[in-house]
Amino acid sequence: MLGRYAPHVAATLSLGLPLIGSHLARMAIGVSDTVMVGWYGVEPLAALVIATSFVIILFFLGMGFGTGVMGLIATALARGDETEVRRGTRMALWLSGIFSILVMPLMWWSQPILLALGQTPLTAELSQDYLRIAGWGLLPMLAGLTLNSYLAALERTQVVMWVTLAGLPLNIALNWVLIFGNLGAPELGVRGAAIASLSVQTVQLAMLAAYAGWLPEARRFALFQRFWRPDWPAFRAIFRLGLPIGITMLAEGGLFVASNVMMGWIGTQELAAHGIALQIASITFMAHLGLSNAATVRVGQAKGRGDAEWMRDAAVTVTALSMGFAILAMAVYLIFPEALVMMYLDPADPQAPAIVAIGAGLLFYAALFQLTDALQVVVLGLLRGVHDTRVPMLIAGFSYWVVGMPVAYGLAFVAGVGARGLWLGLVVGLTVAAVLLLLRFWRGHARGDWTAPHPAV
Questions:
Q1: So where does this one cross the membrane (predicted)?
Q2: pLDDT over 60 at 457, yes or no
Q3: I want to staple 372 with a disulfide (CB 3.0 to 4.6 A). Which of 233, 258, 314, 431 is the partner?
C-alpha cells in the first residue's frame, strides 16, 4: 500500500518544496520592508502597514487569473494540447495587466479613501505617496504570478523559488539605499521602500519571462509570439475561471482583516498578541499553500489523462503531507507557546508578560487553526486542478462570512469570551469551509465526475 503512494509523495514534494520556499521568500521580502521602514520612523511604518494592506486586498482580487490558469495548463499538457497552453497563459497575462490598470486609480487617489476610513491625515498622505509608486508593481506581481503558474505546471518550480529568493537581498539593498539616503542617494523614506519594491518586482518578472522564453522544452508553445493578438474565447474562459478564485481569496483575506479590526475593539494588548499569533500561523501556512499549488498541478494532470484513480491517489498524498506538517506545527505551538510569542517582544517591555500570556493562549487556537486552514487551502488547490472555482467561491463566502464571522463576533462580544472567542470563530468558519470543500471534491471529482466547469480554450 505504501509503495502505491511513494511515487506520488516524491513527485508532490518535488513540486511543493520549491513552491513553499518561494512563498516564504516572498513573505520575507514583506517582513524586510516592515522592519526597515520601522527603523526609519513610526509614522512611515503606520503608512506602510495601511498601504500594503490596500495593495494586498487588490492583489487577492486580481490573483485568480494567474492562479486559475495553473490547473488548466497542467490539464492541457497531460492531453498534449500545446495550443491550449499558449492561449490560456497569454490571456491570463492579458487579464492580469488589464486588472492592474483598472485598479490603479484607487491607489493613485487613495488619500480620500483612507481619510474616509478613519486614518490620520499624515498616515493617509504617506500611504498615498507609497501607493502612487508601489501601485504600479501590481502589474509585475500579477503577471509574475501567471508565469509562476505556467512554470509550475511545467514542473519548473525550482526556478520560481530561486527567482523569488534573488529578490530578497536586492530588496534589502535598495531599501538601505533609498529609504535612508545611503551612497549619496536622496533620503526618500516610505517612497524609497516603494521604489525598491517596484524595482524588485520588475526584475523578477523580467527574469521569469526570460526563462520562460528561453526554456528549450517550452519553445514549442511560442508563448510570446504575436502576444499582442487577442483571443476572446480564451479571454472569456480564463475570466470565468479566475474571477471566482479572486473573490474566494478576497473573502478569506477580508475575514482576517475584519478579525484585526475586531481584536482592536477588545484591547491593545490583545491586538498585539493577535498579530503575533497570526504572523506565526502565517509562516506555517506557507507550507500548506505550496502543497496546494502542487495539488493543482497533480490533479490537473490526472484530469487531462482522464485517470480518476491516479487523481484520488494524488489527492490522498497531498492531503496527508499537509496534515503531517500541520500536526508537527501543532506540536510546536502547544509545547513552546511562550517562547514563540516572546521572540517578537522586547523582554524589557513592561507589557511583555501580559502579551505573552494572551498570545500563548491564542496559539492553542492557532493549533486547531492549522488543521482546518490546511485542509481548506489544500482542497481548494485540488478543486482548481479540475477547474472547479465557482461553487468553491460560494462555499467560501458562506463559511467565512455567514458562519465564521457571526460566530466570532458572538463569542467575542455577545458571550464575552473575548480574544479567544474571536479565534474560535475563525476556526469554526474555516472548519465549515474545509468540510464542504472536501465533500465537493470527494463526492464528485474524485469519483470520476468530469462534469466540473472546463473552459473551452
A1: 46-79, 91-110, 130-152, 159-181, 193-216, 237-259, 271-293, 314-336, 356-382, 394-415, 421-439
A2: no
A3: 431
